[in-house]
Amino acid sequence: MYSKQYKLAVTVPPLMWVSLFLLCAYLILFAHSFWSVRDGQIARKFTLANYKQIVSSPLYLEVLFRSIKMAGAVTGLALLLAYPVVYYLSFRARHKNLLYQLIIVPLWVSYLVRAYAWKTILGSDGVLNTSLQFLHITHAPVSALLYSPFAVVLTLTHIYTPFAFLPIFASLEHVPRNLIEASQDLGATPWQTFRRVILPLSLPGVIAGATFAFVLSLGDFLAPLLVGGPSGIMISNIVVSLFGAAYDWPLGAAISLLMLVMVVSLLFATERLEKRYSYQ
Amino acid sequence: MMGRSKGGLLAGYSALVFAFLYLPIAVLILYSFNGPGVGGFPPRDLTLHWYRVLFEDDAIWNSVLNSVIVALVAVVLALLIGTPAALALDRASFPGKALFRRLVLLPLILPGIITGLSLLMLCVFSGMELSLVTIALGHGTALIAVATTEVFAGLQKFDRRQEEASLDLGANHWQTFWRITLPNLRLSIVGAALLIFTLSMDEIAVSFFLVGRENTLPLEIWSRLRRGMTPEINAVSTIIFLFSLFTIIVWYRIRTRGQAQEIVQASIIQGETHEPEPPGLHQVRDRRQRGRRMPR
Q: Cis before residue B42, ω within 30 degrees of 0?
């Protein structure tokens, strides 16, 4: 029913804009990763030097693996925090909608503000340390709290738990209640019902939530800068420094491209998994 | 059903998780009233001093103004591109459609640093000077995804027969779009605009790379954080928090009212009652993953 002109009118402008500003931008990132810096100038000549440098330098790989570990820890913690709460909300709680909104609210609190809040809590003169001393639990500030991978993981968990929460909630809300009743009628214990019916049906949501938590925390660079200290830096911090003072855009682009490839392949993989586990 | 004690355990655990989510925010707000500065327990000399300092701080208010301008431009841009993009994804088939859909959604799913860097290199490559304009272009482009997913979701609920009727009755496509399509998408568009505005006001990863001389509010806060912590930052954070809260409530109101209307209309037209979607569930899809549910 839509005429050719109509289709052209709605297709061409967005297509052009997106090609110009997004596709070109990502392609330029791709191109930069094969260029190099000579005498403080970016030399636009094909080279694999950046990738060789990444693979041969222990620094980059080490930080990359540490970032993956930290993002993995954030993901695990976020699921551990979110799943029982979602379960409680979906199956038990009386004020489901109110509690649901309460989970959403922190998502709207500025990202920076949440990271900063942790800095004020964990610092040596921070709220946690001074409270511990006030209560005579410790007598000197515990300095290991701030500027450590632990602080980064804690902060990122706080920031990204709601992201894990949302898709799990959606999937648990869609678990057909009659399947649960059937399982109970057929004599399954509550644990068996959970293990065999509810958990498998909620897997797509768990996978989606885990993906968000992982991808977003892997690419984070502000929280590590705020609360991480030298031992808590992540791969994105290296990229930022390469784009800043170190002025090696091509190397930074190569690391970014590596991250992009990792993230996109992860998204493809989890999309597959989600489809496999969805029962419809 | 599980035993009572287990249910209690679950409730207790949930309460702890809520405490974990809210305590930092509570601490932040509390210490905006703390006279001596951030830190130290218990809080003492409660004062509005830091709010007074904040209200006299021109640099902060200048950055707020910048952020509002950037966010408004981003809203207009994202809607101008995102709405036709949703119509195209819904109604047209063209080569590269699958790639186009993924590309539009990519900035929402990718860590902001990758999109920020790519846009920075694009700007430098094409010789654009970094300024508020580049930030607004960056936000607008990155947030097209929000407009597209919102409007696309609106289109799924919308009855195309109304458009058919309009076309049959002699209206042209342009008239049909203005009189039928757009009014029906009103709710999605307002929702998208509010979301884009709030996301842009808070955005820092993309702005971080595209900033010129003028700071946006998050960048201004960021540069001050690097220098040291003062309760003034807590005060401005508290105001941002209250503002976000206000936006959610407005948005929520619009959504539930619109939904109620839709349900009434649907039951009048179809003569059946229709179980409403649990309020708030649409938001599940709103932030990031709604796009991933689009049909292939």
A: yes
Note whether A4 and B91 are within 8 A (CB).
Answer: no
pLDDT of residue A219: 92
Q: For the segment B87-113, what is each residue's pLDDT rounded down to a tens digit?
A: 999 999 999 899 999 999 999 888 999
- B152: nearest Cα among B214, B204, B79, B213: B79
Can you list the domains of chain B with their CATH numbers?
1-47 (no CATH), 59-293 (1.10.3720.10)
Cα torsion through A116, B232, B132, B82, rounded to 10: 60
Q: What is the ipTM of this complex?
A: 0.89
Q: Are A172 and A205 in contact (CB under 8 A)?
A: yes
How far is Cα B172 from Cα B165, in angstroms, rounded to an integer? 11
pTM of the full predicted structure? 0.86
- Give chain A positions within 8 Å (CB) of B234: 120
Q: What is the distance in angstroms between the Cα of B138 and the nearest Cα belonging to chain A?
A: 8
Count of alpha carbons within 13 angstroms of residue A131, beta-carbon side: 9
Mean pLDDT for A193-206 is 92
Report B:130-159 residues touching A (Cβ under 8 A): 137, 141, 144
Domains and CATH numbers, chain A: 58-277 (1.10.3720.10)
